Automatic annotation (TrEMBL):
Protein name: phosphoenolpyruvate--protein phosphotransferase
Domain of life the protein comes from: Bacteria
Annotated gene: ptsP
Covered residues, full protein: 426 to 749 of 758
Subcellular location(s) of the protein: Cytoplasm
Signal sequence coordinates: none
Family according to the record: Belongs to the PEP-utilizing enzyme family.
Length: 324
């Protein structure tokens, strides 16, 4: 099988009837680069910038960040690299910036922290923009958005940072900017949010956690955590509708995209890009190359009729097995 997976690397990810679905990767560590290229990634859908922050003992300087981001952009060039702005809080802690709260997942996380500390945000955006000079494959993505106001603020800061690096003599275009949909409030404002940016990307890890009120890391409730829950599927459908109506791309960068059976549903929903850990990429590509887009659509319709996650899962596995 591993030999077969190697041959798979250079084949396009498309269904039997020619529906193309670019498979991108989630990265964070330097080692993810080689692994991703080796598996035929067509871009980076989520570069978790907090990872390089977590392995240091102080905030990396603008110059240090610039060098780290340049590595990612260069390695994947000319393919796009989607850099998420710092997403700390929740379960991701920096030793030199402790956040102590009773409910960290409902607390000071992601964009909430960086909008309260625009100096951290601006340094990071400037470093990203400078790193992209001459490469122009940068995309910027905002985590934990729960209101239109946060996007306005963040865009304002990104434009300001862009002006500053231009004043310093860097020639960089404004990169595409996207919003992560990972909080239920954002699902219901997807129509407004998508108007403000260039793309939406669904973080199904947090979206599942918040929709189902199930801590994504708590083993005691792990069997309640399910991305096939009908509420999650309906949320995905609302997001897909908003993107289609606005004519803007939708991607999924949560773990769900790396589950082959779930990927079939996401493709049927109209996702334009699936982003996953490099390990899962070959399996997802293999399965998507075995199915017809029409059949995926039919499976989605069936999945949306089921009233619980286990039925969705068993229906999918049975149907996919019958298709070969
Ligand atoms: C997500 O929440 O689905 C996601 C991709 O982000 P993270 O796992 O880093 O929170
Ligand atoms: Mg998340």
């Amino acid at each position: 099988l591993s030999h077969g997976l190697e041959q798979l690397r250079d084949l396009p990810c498309e269904t039997l009837d020619g529906h193309r679905v670019p498979l991108w990767v989630n990265t964070g560590l330097y080692a993810d680069i080689a692994r991703s290229l080796d598996r035929g990634a067509e871009g980076v859908g989520l570069y978790r910038t907090e990872v390089p922050f977590m392995i240091q003992d102080r905030f990396p300087s603008e110059k240090e960040q610039q060098a780290i981001y340049r590595e990612q952009l260069q390695a994947f060039h000319p393919q796009p690299v989607t850099m998420r702005t710092l997403d700390i809080g929740g379960d991701k802690e920096l030793s030199y910036f402790p956040i102590k709260e009773d409910n960290p997942f409902l607390g000071w996380r992601g964009i909430r922290v960086t909008l309260d500390h625009p100096e951290i945000f601006l340094v990071q955006i400037r470093a990203m923009l400078k790193a992209s000079e001459g490469l122009d494959n940068l995309r910027i993505m905002l985590p934990m958005i729960s209101s239109v106001y946060e996007v306005e603020e963040a865009l304002h800061l990104i434009h300001r940072a862009h002006g500053e690096v231009q004043d310093e003599g860097f020639q960089v275009p404004m990169p595409p900017v996207g919003v992560m949909i990972e909080v239920p409030a954002a699902v219901y404002q997807a129509r407004e949010l998508v108007q403000m940016v260039d793309f939406l990307s669904v973080g199904t890890n947090d979206l599942t956690q918040y929709l189902l009120a199930v801590d994504r890391n708590n083993p005691r409730v792990a069997d309640l955590y399910h991305s096939f829950h009908p509420a999650v599927l309906q949320a995905l459908r609302l997001i897909a509708d908003a993107c289609r109506e606005a004519g803007k791309p939708m991607s999924v960068c949560g773990e769900m995209a790396g589950d082959p059976a779930a990927a079939v549903l996401l493709v049927a929903l109209g996702c334009d890009v699936l982003s996953m850990s490099a390990t899962n990429l070959p399996r997802v590509k293999w399965l998507l190359r075995q199915i017809r887009f029409d059949d995926a659509r039919a499976l989605l319709q069936q999945a949306l009729r089921e009233d619980n996650a286990y039925l969705v899962q068993s229906m999918l596995h049975l149907s996919l097995r019958n298709m070969g």
